[in-house]
């Protein structure tokens, strides 16, 4: 829709509220709403002011005034709200310069798409993130000066097989069983999968917003781990859809009396939730990653792209797996892609080339290290910039590793480079290696500096300063 069509849509569909959404730097959707009577043609030209100093990663208090410019093409009837509400995604502008705001994640993705065209390598990139999450029945947590704990629970939790879940008419407790065992949630039918109907309702809501859905299923872990896969799309559009995805999942679960989390590792000793990202480059409607004579049907362009991903992987992790919790997932033994090599079909490699069919249009590669704590716009943009750097500098990724990397002898395993073991290490890598992100002005110095400062002070230091409950087990009696 264009602005005039938005106004007509509001009239024709009895819209009462218009909601403006935008992204903070870490990746959480922010919003505010106006009555539809306040929506006029001036908004599209002049924007709407807001306080940028109250948004994570944005402005200092002495330069807080910022502008939201609504993107009429994103206007969608919000499927989650009772009051008829039109949701519009906004771009962020600096009112002083009148230019797009450098720290607006959506703007960074826009610049990445524009930069791709200038390289001559391709004119379009396609993205298909596999987003995983947990659906719990309860979550409780607290941290203060003298207490620290968390507790999550699920009717599916394998630990609940002995719990008295119901009391019958005679006062006897009973349990209905059917709890997916640890690492065995992929993917039996109901009643083991108790979330089938809820996921179906979730994808129907997603489809109401125009998101094409390919598949949904239970994932490997016990206690309600799920996956819903969207059909591939271009970068900015996929970034928008990833925001809608999280919004709908969280709100649909809440309506059902449950709670969803995209934390990578909420459970100890079971699989974490990742975001395997399928990606390809196209030019004039032709997939630049396909070659019928190449390894796994990959072109030389695709091989160099992989070289860029692997070369810059340590720095990429600071953006693609950007939380301290991310590195509790990225450990050997839980199908986690810690090994920085590539392979056809091999899920123990960080870059996998799917081999489901030989159709040139389907040829793509899958980078398996990211997770859903990433800001979608920044994550997709950063991966593409690394891949383009690999193509431009002809970075050789080495030989593919088609064996099960988890079963290699220790002497062989030590030769394989792995992802950083902590957010702190990833941030150090990004500080040293970010020139590839600055190409074409896609990322800017201030974005990198603010990202490093925010992550170190608000997350790394915050965790480092707090005693951990397991430290009491280890050290209290020493």
Word description of this protein:
The chain folds into 2 domains: 96 residues, Ubiquitin-like (UB roll) (Roll); 352 residues, Creatine Kinase, Chain A, domain 2 (2-Layer Sandwich). Helix content is 32%, strand content 22%. It has 14 helices and 19 strands. The strands form 4 sheets. Strands 7, 12, 13, 14, 15, 16, 17, 18 and 19 form a 9-stranded mixed β-sheet that branches. Strands 1, 2, 3, 4, 5 and 6 form a 6-stranded mixed β-sheet that branches. The protein has a two-stranded antiparallel ribbon with strand order 8-9. The termini are far apart. The mean pLDDT is 94. Its main location: cytoplasm. One of its GO terms (cellular component) is cytoplasm. It comes from Dehalogenimonas alkenigignens.
Question: Summary?
Answer:
The chain contains 14 helices and 19 strands. The chain has 478 residues and is α+β, with helices and mostly antiparallel strands. It folds into two domains: 96 residues, Glutamine synthetase, N-terminal domain (Ubiquitin-like (UB roll)); 352 residues, Creatine Kinase, Chain A, domain 2.
The helix count comes to 14
Largest sheet: 9 strands, mixed
CATH class of the largest domain: Alpha Beta
Q: In percent, how much strand structure appears in the residues?
A: 15-25%
CATH superfamily of the largest domain: Glutamine synthetase/guanido kinase, catalytic domain
How many domains make up the 3D coordinates? 2
Indicate the CATH topology of the largest domain: Creatine Kinase, Chain A, domain 2
- The N- and C-terminal alpha carbons lie at a distance of 67 Å
Q: Cα-atom Rg, whole angstroms?
A: 23 Å
Mean pLDDT: 94
């Amino acid at each position: 829709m264009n602005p005039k069509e938005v106004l007509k849509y509001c009239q024709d569909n009895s819209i009462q509220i218009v909601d403006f959404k935008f992204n903070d730097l870490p990746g959480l959707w922010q919003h505010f709403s106006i009555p539809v009577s306040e929506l006029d043609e001036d908004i599209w030209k002049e924007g709407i002011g807001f306080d940028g100093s109250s948004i994570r990663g944005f402005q200092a208090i002495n330069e807080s005034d910022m502008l939201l410019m609504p993107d009429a093409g994103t206007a969608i009837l919000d499927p989650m709200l009772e009051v008829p509400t039109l949701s519009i995604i906004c771009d962020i502008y600096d009112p002083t310069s009148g230019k797009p705001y450098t720290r607006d994640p959506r703007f960074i993705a826009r610049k990445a798409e524009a930069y791709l065209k200038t390289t001559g390598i391709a004119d379009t990139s396609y993205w298909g993130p596999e987003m995983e999450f947990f659906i719990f029945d309860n979550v409780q947590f607290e941290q203060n000066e003298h207490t620290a704990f968390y507790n999550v629970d699920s009717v599916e939790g394998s630990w609940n097989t002995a719990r008295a879940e119901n009391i019958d008419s005679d006062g006897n407790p009973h349990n209905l069983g059917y709890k997916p065992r640890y690492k065995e949630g992929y993917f039996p039918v109901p009643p083991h999968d108790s979330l089938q109907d809820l996921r179906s309702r979730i994808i129907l809501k997603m489809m109401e917003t125009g998101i094409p859905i390919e598949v949904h299923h239970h994932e490997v872990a016990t206690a309600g781990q799920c996956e819903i896969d969207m059909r591939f799309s271009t970068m900015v559009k996929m970034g928008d859809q990833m925001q809608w995805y999280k919004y709908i999942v969280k709100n649909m679960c809440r309506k059902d009396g449950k709670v969803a989390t995209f934390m990578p590792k909420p459970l100890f000793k079971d699989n974490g939730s990742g975001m395997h990202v399928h990606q390809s480059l196209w030019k004039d409607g032709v997939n630049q990653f396909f070659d019928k004579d190449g390894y796994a049907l990959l072109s030389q362009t695709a091989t160099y792209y992989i070289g860029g991903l692997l070369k810059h992987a340590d720095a990429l992790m600071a953006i693609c797996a950007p939380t301290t919790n991310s590195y509790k997932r990225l450990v050997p033994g839980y199908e986690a892609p810690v090994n920085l090599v590539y392979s056809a079909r091999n899920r123990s490699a960080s870059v996998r080339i799917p081999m489901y069919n030989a159709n040139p249009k389907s040829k793509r590669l899958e980078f398996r290290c990211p997770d859903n704590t990433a800001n979608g716009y920044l994550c997709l943009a950063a991966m593409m910039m690394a891949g383009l750097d690999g193509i431009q500098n002809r970075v050789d990724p080495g030989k593919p590793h088609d064996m099960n990397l988890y079963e290699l002898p220790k002497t062989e395993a030590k030769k394989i480079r792995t992802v950083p073991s902590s957010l702190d290490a990833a941030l150090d890598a990004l500080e040293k290696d970010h020139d590839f992100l600055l190409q074409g002005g896609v990322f800017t110095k201030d974005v990198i500096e603010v990202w490093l400062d925010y992550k170190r002070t608000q997350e790394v230091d915050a965790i480092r300063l707090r005693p951990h409950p397991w430290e009491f087990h280890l050290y209290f009696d020493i």
